[in-house]
Amino acid sequence: xxxxxxxxxxxxxxxxxxxxxxxxxxxxxxxxxxxxxxxxxxxxxxxxxxxxxxxxxxxxxxxxxxxxxxxxxxxxxxxxxxxxxxxxxxxxxxxxxxxxxxxxxxxxxxxxxxxxxxxxxxxxxxxx
Length: 128
Fold this sequence. Notes:
Radius of gyration: 16 Å
Distance between the termini: 21 Å
Helix content: over 70%
Shape: elongated
């Protein structure tokens, strides 16, 4: 396994937990997407993308895609867990994934691009 893959695996795991830990305890009747995704978990996703690109040298587009995809993955984990208990819940789960993918990819992309800009300024490489 290459160094970049190991970094990105850690990034997706950290982003998944940063998004999921504040989102999962919200009662099902009170969940409202994408509003419940916006918060410190999403800030962490952007920071993780920034750090991976700026200081660890991962490719910007790949970093944004991997870290951003952890957000809908955290939502999907909830869909699966609650769907096992009550199969009639989450009838619109594809819409839930779309509503969470947008903010995740947006924030991860901004973080990765900011990291690429910093890397270019300090001479660690250009935008990849």
